[in-house]
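Hi W.,

Here's what went into the run:
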Amino acid sequence: MSEREKILGRIREALRVPAPVPGSADHSDGAVRVVTEAEAAKHIADWLPVVADTFDGRVELFRANAVELRAEFHLFRELQEMEIHVRELAIAEGWKKIASHSGELTDRACSALALPRLATDQKYDVNELESCDAGISECDALIAQTGSVLVSTRTAGGRALSVLPPHHIVLAKREQLLADLPEAFALLKSKYESNFPSFISFITGPSRTGDIERILVLGAHGPRKLTILCV
Amino acid sequence: MCYPRIGVSMVEIFERLGHSVDYPAELTCCGQPAFNSGYWKEARPIGVRVLNRLKDAEVVVIASGSCGAMIKKFYMDLFAKTAHFQAAKALASKCYEFSDFLVTRLGVTEVGARFPHRVTFHDGCHGLRELGNKKQPRALLAKVQGLELVEMSEAETCCGFGGTFATKFPMISTAMGEVKCASALETRAEYIVSNDASCNMHIQGLADRQQLPLRTIHLAEVLNSR
Amino acid sequence: MNASARQFKRDAERLTRDLRHRLLIRTALKKYEVARDARRSRYQDWQSARQTAAEIKWDAVNHLDKYLEELVEKLESRGTKVHWASDGEKARQIILGIIREKQACSIIKSKVMTGEEIHLNEALEKAGLSVVESDFGEYIVQLRHEAPYHFVFPAMHLVRGEISELFQKELGSNPTNDPEQLMLIARQVLRGKYISADIGISGANFAIAETGMISITENEGNARLTCALPKVHIALMGIEKVIPKLEDLAIFLPMLATAGAGQALTGYNSLYGGPRQPGESDGPEEFHFVLLDNKRTHLLADAEQRDALHCIRCGACLNVCPIYRNVGGHTYGTTYQGPIGSVITPHLRGLQNWKHLSYASSLCGACTETCPVKIDLHHHLLQSRRNATAQRSIWWEKFAFKGFAFLMNRPILFLLVGKLGRLGQKFHPFVKGTRFDPARAWTRSRELPTIAKQTFGEYWRARGR
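Here's what came out:
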């Protein structure tokens, strides 16, 4: 018997006796209450923290969360403003080389920079990525409820671009601002259906650790700085 | 046996409120020590006596969160799938912890008490978590003349008694008691009030050994002070 | 009393007297409490969220075979190699087998509690492989040759001075008391290891049946690097962690973060659905997923305690447990500490040898109250006590409780004992605190109450009723 058969066999044997549903502390009549995932899950949005209905309200929530997370967030009226901001960052931080991937926003932002650029759209040398001062990517969505950036291999140039360089810059469009986590998962399903990227991530602030006396320190292994630019 | 004033206080309060009180003198224990130690078979005969003696009572009031929880909640585990299950359920429905009885069943918070002291309240775990009695004791204390209630940061933290736990793991039990005492001392309260005599016994025992200026007192005694 | 119970008592004796340690843990956990309360209050309905989370887990665990099959089918369809391991030995063999086949020598790991459970690091090191823990806290305890102190905060018991000394000794770094500097030292060292590692080993917090993915939660980014850079990625996960649908994560991820650390969401929550897919520029060429039983099916078969398998390993029960706060994580001597550890360890490692963990609790219920998925933790400890005595009772204890029941059901005898007690009290001061003191367990640190001159029973009889 294979390990698989052994384990599945033990599971089926164990499950012949029903278990009580948590929260149903009724010892009495022996009738076993049954719940389904579908019934339970449909209320999730009602329990999570509240999110405004309007774009302005959501932006303000995202901004407040970003501040708390020590991430930078800017909302621009025009694409050019975003490009200028990226250029200013490059100068202020003394970037010598950046990494990015091809995309509507990234192409424009990077071409304005006139810096050597590593493209992570095809196979690349990790050591070269390690030597970059910043990684500039797009994203799948921004999530107001948590101040998160949703990325995947397809929208952020692979798995490592958004985590290896010390500064991660995210370029987003305002239509990409979603209200909450349930909306984000619905987006993933409708956008990718059955052909998901092999890597998806919810990025919530720069890399951090509290392992030393519960004191917050940024830039543990991932980026020390996270800048989110929205237009 | 050790704290008769608690029972006396309860009797006097109820009679003052116009109720008639009966005391089942032949009942000694709810059986919790055996139950908590895992000896459910040995605990059952004790529980059966309780069920039989109290089955005709109109209402049963218990001065302790832990005994109250035993009868109101754990008897249904103890007697699950036995002939006594329905009796256990019936008793549970007419059983009340003391503060809950006054506030919820009788709708009374003012009992004419006077206790001009600064006090802090210790939430016994059974009363707090098994029975959900957080507000009731405080509603009663709020109406006591001259009483000043100051909450301690560790009000809801277990004092460390835990029944046989106190003697099986005395070092942990003591450490937990020390945390409770330190928190009470921070409030500069003269008394620690609780509705569980066993918690008081443990806290007072520790305070006396370490010569801390802390006095424990049962809620019923406070409410019976004039 | 067996060896583990004796060791537990010895360590508890030592740690409860260590006031510095008690204060350190208390301070850390008070900070956690403040953050947690603030975060919880932002939920529209935390209690309903718990109920929903509990129900989804109930569905998942009570249809475990169905969801596991769906998960594996989806994973395999996109190139993941799935392995099943009925116990720790099998899992170690599988992982070693993969490593040998790849002729790999350097391994980087992110936090894998199931790896601790099966003593994976020891097995790998014995096989001559170099294994580096990339999670900062795990890296620290690895250098100290210690077990993790807390499964979410492995180095919670250490202050910066101790970490600085450790780094000076093991890494030759300069002394510093600045947490940021200390972290930079570790970051420097680990950087190169990511890039050069042949194999990355991770755990998984959840696996999604519907879409064939695993979900990994972290703050540092070390797991993301572990699963991105090496050519081979191996993930080890307990079978109970599978959940039905992708959108279920919308309740689990925030609750895990809130209950575990008072965060809205942990820094990185990443989903992995396979090795590098066509068109992707990076990621492992091979992805191996190892499913571990290791007595989880034993716990599954106990319908009364089955909900312990709902655990999302947030650590909240540890954080609120007054026993944990006073004895610390190492005292338990187990992979999983605190209330959840005390509930599952007897199932995973044997009831008779680990039942003492069920007794080392005052059953206060703070754990059950805080658990985001509503596991009935403290009642399970009570049930374990019952199960342990039913399986093998201690003869004199059983005799004592039979005697107790006998006495309690005979009020006249009870009265007599009361009177004898009042008499005995007079003589007690002569033996108090000595080894002849029958109440020594109490009197070593506390005064005894005195039996009243008139008991309530006597008062009642005097009233003439």
